[in-house]
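Standup, Tuesday
Yesterday: got the pipeline producing structure tokens again.
Today: sanity-check two examples.
Blockers: none.

Example 1:
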Amino acid sequence: MQKRGLGRTDLTITPLVFGGNVFGWTADEKTSFDLLDRFVDAGLNAVDTADAYSRWVPGNSGGESETIIGRWLKARGNRDRVVLITKVGSDMGQGKKDLSPAYIERAVEASLKRLQTDSIDLYLSHWPDPATPYEETLGAYQRLIEKGKIRFCGASNLDASQLQAALKVASLRDLPRYDVLQPEYNLYDRASYEGPLRDLCMAEGLGVITYYSLAMGFLSGKYRSMADLGKSVRGEGIKGYLDKRGLAILDALDQAAARHSAKPAEVALAWLIAQPGVTAPIASATSVEQTDSLIRAATLTLDAAEIRQLNDASAP
């Protein structure tokens, strides 16, 4: 499967990233192993997780996803086949978002232990931390890179002004810059990324891997009325998508899906893959059947008319 360069890093990834937020939540360890096996055996190679996954589940404390991925990597002996992405900075019990050097240095050791690896390919600041200057956070990443603990750093959930400020500090202080951004972006949620943030990422050559790529599952077409919201644990969060615009997007997805004998989710991901400046969307699955759908999405090509129709239906 064709790979894409991830910004200015030397990492290359296939055009779809497996979202590990489900591991230890809606996918148990055995299921997670099956999903990862199918994904990698199909030629895809990037897995995204975070230390905080899945702390929100009753009985969990965070780190469950990384632990499952680490056990899978050890069992399969395939670390060299996987681009491993994880994140730091979420509340892991310290009561705040934290990107201070002391915290990062502790957190990376915990992640490396859970992942059973010597180095993380891409380490992302999960959230902005207004209490810690960019210079301190980037300095911590520089030390981790020098020690071989991580290869590259990036960020998630920054707006254009925050990203610009971080890039400026990196340049002025000769520190590692954020080479990859992970923004929320999908056919419905377009406004926060398109515009200044996308322009900056493209001008600076950042890799972009999008999260909530299927709008929490709404773009799968599974939820078309309030009566459908009980179909999964994410259903309640999808209520806001069931408006006139959301239904128009589903209609456009249905039309393109019919032409390609595909599923709406596959078309929604193919639209993202085709967007200027997007390296790859992140999407998760909880069954082998859903994983096969992600694999198909990675090779689905939409024509210009189909992209235009989806653009028009989803225009903010």
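Example 2:
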Amino acid sequence: MTSSTTSPTHAALPPRAGRRCHNVLNGLHSTHYFSPDVSRELAGLGITHPSAVNFAVRAAALGPVGAGVVTAAFYNYKHALVAEHLPAVWRTASPEDVLAARARGVDTTLRRLLGDEVVSSPEMAEAAGLALRATEACSRSARPLYSAHADLPVPDAPHLAYWHAATLLREHRGDGHVSALLGAELDGIEALVSHTATGKGMTPKWNFATRGWNQEEWEAATERLRDRGLIDGEGELTESGVELRRHIEAETDRLDRAPYEHLGEAGVERLTELGTAFIGTALQAGAFPADMLGKA
């Protein structure tokens, strides 16, 4: 279990160093959302619908919560989609059983994507130690998904400890990102539309399939952003839109700086180097759908 109420003071890192480190850690964490191994484990519990699998594995650390809690914490999912599966999924399997199945699925996924040699390598053990060190400076305040996962035990196996630490750091940043989105006055679907417009978010097709929104709702959100001067007639970000997205990421960086400052510049650089190699291997192994990102 990792958490602190105050963060040590360390020298500031180079610009966006923490963000770059987070991005490679989050990349490997996120492979399990698209993993047939995790889906197979959840199917063994009787959970087969892709959305139910997604909500169960990410929300299980919160306990047997209902749709309202998950909609609030996840932020950019349509509440009606969440309510189709929660709290009903907990009548099929307990959060404890889901967490155990997730761990088995993650183990299989990482071994398949990275290979046993990488999984058991000294570099993996080193990365796990560095990532866990960073989590020592995470804060629970106003971070429900991070705080819930911080209550879970650290796995013994280095590759699972690395994945666990990556999950903590991902949820810590994600909870802060939600605060930044609220400050920018973007609701859930507007956050998705503006992110997709950057070219770095999921395509509308994948947003519809996974977040529950439809084309009419997407167009209505786009129109609201157009009225604010954030998106132009072609669906591209305006100068103001680009600036708002930059501000959101900078604010997210600010709220998430403590773990990486705690780790220190050399540690962040080394963890980024190791994590880049891991996610590069996973990407080459086809960890994500080829058509997931972009504007189309």
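Quick observation on example 2: The chain has one domain: 17-284. Residues 22 and 170 are 7 Å apart (CA to CA).
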